[in-house]
Amino acid sequence: MKTKNEIPRRELLRMGAVSAAAAWAATRAKLGFAAGKVPIGVQLYSVRKDCEKDLPGTLKAIKGFGYEAVEFAGYYGRSAADMRKLLDDNGLKCCGTHTGLDTLEGDALAKTVEYNKTIGNKFLIVPWIPEERRKTADDWKTLAAQFDALADTVAPTGMRVGYHNHNVEFTPLAGKTPWDLFFGGTKNVIQQVDLGNCIDGGGDPVALIKRYPGRTVTIHIKEFSKAKPDAFVGEGDVPWKTVFASASPSRVSRPVWVPQHLRPLSSRIFRISAALRP
Description:
The chain is of the alpha/beta class. The chain has helices spanning 9-14, 17-31, 48-64, 80-89, 108-119, 137-154, 178-183, 195-200, 205-211, 240-246, 265-274, and strands spanning 41-43, 69-72, 93-98, 123-126, 160-164, 190-194, 216-221, 252-259.
């Protein structure tokens, strides 16, 4: 069954590249986002069910809508060589990988680095830390030291280690937010600011970008609305133009913008490109 807002995949794949590019250009303009200056990627977790069913077809559809890159959250059983071929065949780059902290610890680190080197990824982003490892302020300080050491270890490979926020990082512990306890204790770890999650937790994404200049390399474009939980980009509480203006070269190093929560593919990828047309 399809909803009234859902467009079948076969129809999306028939849409011309020109119309898709025009829709995306209009979206950028509406948000105050200069076209062509910053690459746009898709977090594949958002369309994970589509990836499970047909990864090549999903990547083709994503490229067809004008996206330049993808961020992984799992590899769907593909080897690094096979994944790189899929990316190359579809003209896509890898703009990051969400990888568990355990994949960066011990003997697993070398394997993780090798896989990501093959697929052309430079950003190893930890998307979540188990609750038992982040209960206290001291826990966050310990994690900061661990992440900084990991960042130093992978630096010779040209890779960077980062952390992606949810909403729990903005509930104060011992007078400071976990986010500040963590990033205030690191020097080389990058922050992947998830805009919607940040605001949901009571944080200020613009303040974070300014507070840690040069540490924001990839940003997740996610809307948040108290009144409309299913709001798309531009329909909620995120101050988009202010966010984009804050991401100046002095504060943000080679940013990649990653739209999130695009499922199902046949409606969400279309709407993220088209909903904000003037």
